[in-house]
Structure formats: structure tokens, C-alpha cells
Amino acid sequence: MKKTSKLVALLLTSSMFLAACNNNQDANTKEDTKVESTEKAAKESNSQLDDKTVAMVNGEKLSKDDYKKEISFLYKEFLNSEKGIVEGIIYTPYPVAKEILKQIITAIEKRYQIKLHAKNEVEPDLIGGFKVVFGDKVLDRSVKRELEELYRKMVS
Q1: Residues 6 or more apart in contact with residue 31 via CB below 8 angstroms
Q2: Predicted confidence (pLDDT) per residue in 136-149, tens digit
Q3: What global pTM score does this model have?
């Protein structure tokens, strides 16, 4: 619920900001346009908005592009949570065939009863195997982890 209210507040302020920026004003006027709630947030946090800052989110100054990225990220996160989708990354030491990625994703979806959308990223340090990061979980089945574990056992 807390994420939902944060998203709704951000979407409302963003719609006001985008409406103000997209009306038929010249470029200089657009740069100076600020949402009323943004100015209020700045005053509350004792911050000054400079010419390039258009919003304050969690006490952090954001440019117009960063603000749009933040809105897009929160909206995507909100939609995924509504649909029960979890975003993730599958790290492998080399590029992997799509069929193998599908097998890994299917196994994780069955085990954790989620819908996983994952992309593959190459991380050569893993040596072999894979590591999956999704939600607040890390599933590490890499050779690197196995070697580190073996080393710890031998040293202790």
C-alpha cells in the first residue's frame, strides 16, 4: 500500500508537470516551469531548486529526464506488482541460449510461485554456472561461489 500511495502521488505531480511543460510555451518558459508541489517539497527540505532541477523526490533533486525515468520506473514497478511479475537478472559467465534461460526461469517460477521477467547479463568472474537476482533474493549456483565456499572450509 505504501508503494501504491507513493506512485499515485508521483503520478499526480508528474501529470501536472508534464501538462505544464507540454503546453505551447517557448523553451525558456518550459525550463522555468515548476510544479507547485515540487516547490513546496523544496521549501520543506530547505533546498533551493536550481535552473535545471524540476523535482524533489526523496530529498533528491531531479532533472526533467531523471524525473521522467523515475516516473517510468515506479509505474513499471507498480504494474508488475499488480500482475505478480518480478523483474530479475540472470548472470552467466558467457552468453547463454534462450532455451537454457527459459529453463532457469521456469524452474524459479515453479519453486517460488512467481512470474519472472529476467534478462541475461554476462559476468565472466562467475567461471561457470549462474547467479539469479530477483526481488530481494539471490540464487547463486556459480562455480565462483562453490570455490569460495571450498576455500572457507579449507582455511577454517
Answers
A1: 51, 52
A2: 999 999 999 999 99
A3: 0.60
